[in-house]
Design brief:
The chain is α+β, with helices and mostly antiparallel strands. The chain has helices at 72-95, 141-151, 155-160, and strands at 5-13, 18-26, 35-39, 46-50, 53-57, 99-112, 125-137. The protein has two domains: 5-69, no CATH class; 73-160, GMP Synthetase, Chain A, domain 3 (2-Layer Sandwich). It is built from three helices and seven strands; from the N terminus they run βββββαββαα. A hairpin with a 4-residue loop joins strand 1 (5-13) and strand 2.
């Protein structure tokens, strides 16, 4: 998909009840490690280019979106779940353990800080991600316990639980 493309994406405008064409013009794939997100300012639907891959993001209808893709939090959970599953599968293959499948179920919520005994923050609300891992295969208890430990070592888990610095700036506006 290296050539220039303009792919129309229909998105309902809940305010007017009409269909708009949201056009994503990407002249080339973003470089490795870069994600390009574009969207019409009139709605929530977004087009995501990650290398040669194209994804969508949106909000559900009940939140004012058009539900044309996962919500941003669902994408965040997807990244964590995919990384967890990949990490566990790789570890089990390297150990030659009988793991045949991994199923990761994740939920995002906001909880009162006071309700989290293991959290440093005790005031206000916290983001909570519940992660349930199903390991399919003839694993013994020690292998299952070790894989649970390894799950928290996946790169995305480590990123989400470490200090994160996000540097945001405005892009230079091209001359018209």
């Amino acid at each position: 998909m290296g050539a220039a493309s303009a792919t129309p994406h229909p998105a309902a405008d809940p305010g007017e009840g009409t269909i708009r064409q949201v056009v994503s013009s990407v002249s080339s794939d973003p470089p490795p490690g870069t994600v390009l997100v574009t969207g019409d300012a009139g709605g929530f639907a977004q087009h995501i280019a990650a290398g040669r891959h194209r994804l969508a993001a949106d909000e559900p209808s009940k939140a004012g979106g058009t539900d044309t893709g996962p919500s941003p939090y669902e994408l965040l959970l997807s990244a964590l779940g995919a990384c967890t599953s990949m990490t566990l599968s790789l570890y089990a293959r390297r150990k030659d353990w009988p793991l045949s499948a991994v199923r990761v179920t994740l939920r995002h919520s906001r909880i009162h800080a006071a309700d989290c005994e293991s959290c440093e923050t005790k005031v206000g609300f916290l983001t909570r991600i519940d992660c349930e891992i199903e390991l399919v295969g003839d694993l013994d208890d020690a292998q299952r316990a070790r894989l649970l430990e390894i799950a928290e070592k996946c790169p995305v888990h480590r990123t989400l639980t470490s200090e994160i610095s996000i540097a945001t700036r405005l892009a230079e506006t091209p001359a018209e």
